[in-house]
Write a structure and sequence with these properties.
single chain; 250 residues; alpha/beta; Spore Coat Polysaccharide Biosynthesis Protein SpsA, Chain A; 2 domains; nine-stranded mixed sheet; two-stranded antiparallel sheet; 7 helices; 11 strands
Length: 250
């Protein structure tokens, strides 16, 4: 079982190093597909032994599907630059490499962090992700910017016990900036699909999202971080429909 680690990047020099180091000794190839970084991401990747390919960015889903096909090996381990494997996930991959894999796709729970605080409730946990798979067993799908990898045969999936550690935001400021960017991307994607939104839909989606994340899924158990996450997620859920309405009127 030979594995290609695949990471897509744009100005990820601050976080990419920890991602690549977390697969040291496990990946037989490290591939970084970069879309024009100017912060030294490419040089950092090469210094850590990665092969760097330059490709214009046309969307998260499109970029990840293209990157997977550039991998040299049949098994692909896909991580984002701000993710890394924990010790248990590393041990599980090492075990899979020593035996004949019985499934076509393997996944883990993703443990998201808000600054240094692990978030164990709300919409962000257990956040299961399929990230190790045979190249031809499925593909990235979803609606940009929220991609997900789907296996063609559900009985060919196996969920393992380790975690993907996700260090996405230092705090609420970075979270708000990403939510603003993602709302715009989502609105454009929905418009391209011919979708519309009523005047009430932004408020409905925002309200439902907040109740689900903060109350129903227990986001309040994560304290102040849980309050901030639920609020920003609810704003993004409504804002993408507000922007869709503006796009459809223009």
């Amino acid at each position: 079982m030979h594995i290609s680690l695949v990471v897509i990047t744009l100005n990820e020099a601050e976080k990419l190093g920890d991602c690549l180091k977390s697969v040291a000794g496990l990946a037989d190839e490290m591939l970084v597909v970069d879309s024009g970084s100017t912060d030294g991401t490419q040089a950092l990747a090469e210094s850590l032994g990665a092969r760097v390919v330059h490709r214009p960015f046309k969307g998260h889903i499109e970029q990840k599907n293209a990157a997977a096909q550039l991998a040299q090996h049949d098994w692909v381990l896909s991580l984002d630059a701000d993710e890394r494997l924990d010790a248990e996930a590393r041990t599980e991959i090492a075990a899979l490499k020593q035996q004949a894999a019985k499934k076509a796709a393997y996944g883990w729970r993703r443990l998201n962090h808000y600054g240094e605080q692990p978030i164990r409730h709300g919409a962000w946990y257990p956040d299961r992700k399929l990230r190790l798979w045979k190249k031809q067993a499925g593909r990235w799908t979803g609606t940009n910017p929220h991609d997900r990898w789907e296996c063609r045969e559900k009985d060919s999936e196996q969920w393992l016990k380790g975690h993907i550690l996700h260090f996405s935001f230092k705090g609420a400021k970075e979270h708000r900036q990403q939510a603003d960017r993602f709302a715009g991307i989502a609105a454009q994607a929905m418009k391209s699909q011919g979708k519309t939104a009523s005047v009430f839909r932004p408020y409905l989606h925002a309200g439902i999202r907040w109740v689900r994340d903060y109350i129903w899924l227990g986001g309040f158990l994560d304290g102040q971080a849980g309050w901030q996450i639920a609020g920003i997620n609810a704003w993004e859920a409504g804002e993408k429909y507000r922007r869709l309405r503006r796009l459809n009127k223009s």
